[in-house]
Amino acid sequence: MERQAAPLEPNNQDRTKDATRHHCRRPGHGPGALAALLEIEGDISVVARARNGKEALHAVLMHKPDVFITDIEMPEMTGLDVAAELKRRKIARA
What is the pLDDT of residues 34-69, one digit of tens each? Predict the structure, then answer.
């Protein structure tokens, strides 16, 4: 029997930070595919997107999302570098 997660209450939405460079919003291109799929879910809200690791780190510090989705390979800082910095600052759990 497969276990299903309990639905979130409408006022308890997951706030997601999407920093995948392949899915970031670029002028004239609209939202990326991953962000668009996440926005379809009623209990998930994409609160920011970033073009590189430094922007991603800044956005996480500014928005404090519940979930952070990142690409490993990004310009300026990798996704792993961002995760390590968030852990160092005690922003993220291991």
Answer: 888 888 888 888 888 888 999 999 999 999 998 888
Q: Which element (helix H / strand E) includes 70?
A: strand 67-70
- What does pTM read for this prediction? 0.64
Supply 1's token pair.
């029997």
b/e map of 35-69 (b: 16 or more CB within 10 Å)?
beebeeeeebebbbbbebbbbbbebbeeeebeebb
Minimal CA–CA distance to 56: which of 29, 93, 16? 16
Number of Cβ atoms within 10 Å of the Cβ of 21? 20
- How would CATH label the architecture of 12-88? 3-Layer(aba) Sandwich (3.40)
Alpha-helix runs per DSSP H in the chain: 33-40, 53-63, 79-88
